[in-house]
């Protein structure tokens, strides 16, 4: 990790941890393999759904289409986020593009689920002929593809919100494949095509819940809320526990993208304190105890100094 230090108006600033590790980029190959698998299966499921007349298959194909787009967006986002900024304007790089891609995925999931539920409601009471054989075959194949993709993306979903968005899409599709299998069995056992419609509605509602949860996480990052894994009270207490620090104020912490938490703070030093040593120790506390590798810290040597801090 590199650090830089400079003086402005008598105050010492430090930028720590500029050599960021990019969580999403580490899992790009997994996204690529999942993209190829899902895109191939989408074509198969769409054709069979149209031929068999199964709304459950068509709804699951819609989810697969959203998966193809979401995985493609995730791949594109990780590529863009990894590129160095040559414009000189994006001082934090392009890491936020991954968050935007996740938001796009959430909107896709909501759109597909709304369409499926609307179509299912429209079918209620209408006589529909459904071929359960293709439903069972394609549902089983889809479940296999989804399980493989889940194993590919699971580890990355814990580190990257971008990969998490793609992972949740696959989770929704796995549920859809199970639903297709269940619907096919129920149609075969009862002869009632209404089960196909009911399964489609259940899939749509399930996807809606997952999309809302992902959307809330995206909005939390874009709103620059304090990261969930950072306890601000504990962070302030740990910094105030350093002997040379008299007071902490103007503390801000937020998430740039998954795995990249950043913070700013003003440190009021006790008389005679070594600012360089304080900065180094504060940096260590933030990095080792709170996982914040990029911190901009302003030192105020005179406790009585009137700090013209921002009102927000």
TrEMBL record:
The chain crosses the membrane at residues 31-58, 64-83, 95-118, 130-153, 165-189, 195-213. It comes from the Bacteria. InterPro entries: Cation_efflux, Cation_efflux_CTD, Cation_efflux_CTD_sf, Cation_efflux_TM, Cation_efflux_TMD_sf, CDF/SLC30A. Keywords: Ion transport, Membrane, Transmembrane, Transmembrane helix, Transport. It is a multi-pass membrane protein. Signal peptide: none annotated. Pfam families: Cation_efflux, ZT_dimer. Its main location: membrane. Residues 227-300 form the Cation efflux protein cytoplasmic domain. Residues 33-222 form the Cation efflux protein transmembrane domain. It is found in: Membrane. NCBIfam families: CDF. PANTHER family: CATION EFFLUX PROTEIN/ ZINC TRANSPORTER, RE54080P-RELATED. Belongs to the cation diffusion facilitator (CDF) transporter (TC 2.A.4) family. SLC30A subfamily. This is Cobalt-zinc-cadmium efflux system protein.
């Amino acid at each position: 990790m590199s650090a830089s230090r400079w003086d402005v108006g008598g105050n010492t600033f430090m930028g720590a941890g500029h050599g960021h590790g990019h969580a999403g980029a580490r899992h790009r190959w997994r996204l690529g393999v999942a993209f190829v698998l899902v895109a191939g299966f989408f074509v198969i499921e769409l054709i069979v759904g149209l031929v068999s007349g199964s709304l459950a298959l068509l709804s699951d194909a819609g989810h697969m289409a959203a998966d193809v787009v979401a995985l493609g967006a995730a791949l594109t986002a990780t590529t863009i986020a990894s590129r160095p900024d040559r414009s000189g304007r994006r001082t934090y790089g392009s890491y936020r593009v991954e968050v935007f891609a996740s938001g796009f995925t959430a909107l896709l999931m909501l759109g597909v689920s709304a369409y499926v539920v609307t179509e299912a409601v429209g079918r209620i009471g209408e006589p529909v002929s459904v071929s359960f054989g293709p439903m069972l075959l394609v549902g089983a194949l889809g479940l296999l593809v989804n399980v493989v993709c889940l194993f590919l993306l699971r580890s990355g979903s814990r580190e990257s919100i971008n990969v998490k968005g793609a992972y949740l899409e696959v989770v929704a599709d796995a549920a859809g494949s199970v639903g297709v299998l269940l619907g096919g069995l129920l149609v075969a056992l009862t002869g009632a095509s209404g089960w196909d419609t009911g399964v489609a509605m259940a899939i749509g509602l399930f996807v809606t819940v997952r999309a809302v949860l992902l959307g809330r996480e995206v909005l939390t990052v874009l709103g620059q809320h304090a990261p969930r894994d950072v306890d601000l009270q504990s962070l302030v207490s740990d910094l105030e526990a350093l002997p040379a620090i008299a007071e902490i104020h103007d503390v801000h912490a937020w998430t740039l993208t998954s795995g990249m938490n950043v913070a700013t703070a003003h440190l009021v030093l006790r008389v005679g304190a070594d600012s360089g040593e304080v900065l180094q120790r504060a940096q260590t506390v933030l990095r080792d105890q709170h996982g914040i590798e990029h911190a901009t810290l302003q030192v105020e040597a005179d406790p009585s100094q009137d700090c013209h801090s921002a009102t927000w």
